[in-house]
Each structure stands twice: as structure tokens, then as C-alpha cells.
Amino acid sequence: MAIKKKKSPNTKKTTKNKKSAVVARPLSKQHMPEDYSISLAEYVKGGPERLITDADKRGPKQRMRGFESTYQNIIDYIVRVTHRIWEEKNIGYIYDTYQQNSQVYDDYGLQLGAKKIVTDTTHTINAFPNIQLIADEVIWAGNDEVGFHTSHRCIIRGKNTGYSKYGPPTNREIDVWCIANCVTLDNEIFLEHVLYNNSSMLSQLGLDLHEVAAKLAADRPAGRSKKSAVRQSSSRRGVIKPDLVTIPKPGKGFDVDDFVRSLYQNVWNRRMLGALATTHASNLVFHGPTDRAFKGLELYQAFLLSLLAMFPDLVLSIDEIYWMGNDKEGYLTSVRWSGNATHAGNGRYGPPTNRQVYIWGITQHKIVNGRISDEWMMFNEMDLMMQLAGALDEA
After folding, report:
1. Do domains 29-207 and 228-388 have the same CATH topology?
2. pLDDT tens digits, 344-353
3. Which of 12, 55, 57, 106 pairs with 303 at a CA distance of 20 to 30 A?
């Protein structure tokens, strides 16, 4: 039985003004790149240093109506915009590449508008003046009509020599990774979901995660409320028996969309963890939040069990999925997901609090011969710990 795909609203501008609000349009299979001619692997051939200096070697030209002519394709746009803002410290370039009323969801909630992004970026660069954001992968889909969807995985490195909201400089080095899923149209990012692995960063700075979470929860960050964060009524969870669906097998015409949706339904929602033996390679390489990294299906299964044990009524929904590739070369997928749950079990977050929480994440997969060989999963772990510390309690 196939999983029904959620419908999304059409993209439209509310007025003829370019700066008016935009809603992301859903993608279909025709929007998925069928090869890797435009990919990060092709883009960095010959060394990443040439990306900034050699305009003739930035990959094939792609139609990018409304974008600055300096950009060859969407990979070039994402990599060089990031470099110009962060490494070159042209923070104000955000005003040219983010819509003035853009929406950015991160570990601390919804950030509205380019001005807020400028403020947050200035804060981070001040804390880490030598910061680097190194592109590790960019999965993309779409075009200049429906919008380019990109899932940018990068490695963040720097030394904390400046003040931040977490306190005075620690003079410690950080090496963390993040995933930023953006939707871009007419040279402007208007929607972004980004997870910076803040829990890993804070650990590397020598800070106690539970103490930081409690402090941030007490500060009650602006824009967060219990009503807005817990988006699904708890009465809907655990009432209906989840369907068990058939997971597509590898072969000609492999259905990536159905494969991923069936996997999430069977493993996360139906708790059929034995299905992992048919969907993942036995030597799976996994990267997760707060420096969780391991190899092997047994360890991956144990990690999933730990989450399901802490949040027994957790049900995940796929909010967005896109991919690139083909049966021969394999696929790269980006999956954005979310769900509500009750903290009713023991685990790394302490004894049960029975608090309702909202969990969301982004997962990238590398699929070879119908099996997932590599997985990068990030979720709002620091935000989750803040919720458990009471950040969403009613005043």
C-alpha cells in the first residue's frame, strides 16, 4: 500500500511586488535532477579554492531567471552566497539574497525577516571571527519557476574569541556540521529550515547542555509558545493502529519517494525496526546530532530505539522530500520531517517529565542499489531540551 502524499499550497506572491510574501510550491518528480552534472562533486573538481577566483570553471550554466548573472547554477549560488556572507564577512549581502520578510526556522523557533538574519549572523561571526562554512554536500531540485529547493550540508569551524549569548569567549575551537534547507526564487531565499547542531557546538565550548537549556528556557525566547510549537493534538496520537506498507525493492524505475515514505511509516510509526535490514546497508555510516557518529546497522537501530523509548507516542510526518540521481549512480535525498510526542521514558534527557514536545529534523540519505549506505540526521535537540526544561509551559 502506498503512502498518500501530503498536498502543499501553490507558490504565489500575494501582490505583484517582488518583496511580498511567497509560499513554497510543492515539487513533483519532473523537478528532480536525474544525474549529477550539476552537483557539488562536479563543482569542486580541481579544488574548492577556484570557486571564488575562476569564473570559467563553476560548472555548467543553468537557467536562473531573476538571479544575478554572476551565478552559473544553483550550486554556485548556494556555495558562493554562503562564502560571501560568512568568510568574506559581507553580512549585508543578506539583504540582497534573503527576501525582506523571509521565514527562517532554526533551533530557537521562527526568525522573521532579513534584518533578523543579519543580526543573528553578526552575533555568530563576532563570537567566531575566523569562522568557516565548508560545503560538504548540496542536494537540489526545482527550477527558476517553481523555486530552487536546496539542502546544504556544511562543516562549521572557528575559534570562540568573542562574546556571545552563551557567555564570554572560551577560546575553544569548534568543528560541527549543519543542514540548511532553503527555497530560493529570483535571487532571494524566502524560506529556510536550518539546524546548526547547537548541542554539539555548546559541548565543544565546554558548556553543560542541561544548564544552558534551563537558562534559555527561563528566558523564554521571543516567538515561541506552547500553542505554536506543539502543532498536533495529542489526542490524535496512538489512537489508530499505523498501517504496515510495502517498501519498494531495488530495480529498474526504483521509486525513491515511495521508498522513503514507506520506510518512515514502517520504522518510525509502526515500530517495525526489523525493516531496517531491507532498507539500510549492514555497514551503514551514520552522522547524528551532538557528535553521534557510528558505523553499522546494529548501532543505528539502538539509536532509534533510544528515541522511541523516551518518546513512546512519537509519530513522524514527512513535510518535504526531494532527491537527485538515478538507479545506476544512486540517489541523494533530503527529507524534512516533524512530529509531536510525550517525554514518558528514560534516556539521555533524564527521567520522564511527561511534557509534550515538538520535534523536527532534516535527514539526508545516500542510496546505492536500493539501500541507504550513508545517513546524516539532524534534529532540534537543543530546542527539545529547552522544551523539556519548561520553555513551552503556560505562563
Report:
1. yes
2. 999 999 999 9
3. 106
